[in-house]
Amino acid sequence: LEARFRVPDTYGIFKFVIDYNRVGYSHLYSATQVSVHPLLHTEYERFITSAYPYYISTFSMMAGAFLLSFLVLYHRDDLPKKKAE
């Protein structure tokens, strides 16, 4: 017996019951418990496609910090010219 269903928004233990009774046929009763739990951190996808803007912003911030630190470290002030007297 196989069934597909949409998972509810709440977590918990759900009981699916089939209690079918029709004249002339045998009585059909089936009860199944299914637990719905949040995914563990190891069960998620490695890279989530909807998070690509966040990945790009992270790497652009890293590149910007590297560029800014490079400019600050290797910036050379102009030496003041000596006044001729």
UniProtKB/TrEMBL annotation:
Domain of life: Eukaryota
Alphabetically ordered keywords of this record: Membrane, Transmembrane, Transmembrane helix
KW Transmembrane (keyword) present: yes
Bilayer-crossing regions: 54-74
Swiss-Prot/TrEMBL GO biological process terms: protein N-linked glycosylation via asparagine
Residues of the OST48 middle domain: 2-75
Entry GO CC: oligosaccharyltransferase complex
Record protein name field: OST48 middle domain-containing protein
Annotated organism of origin: Rotaria magnacalcarata
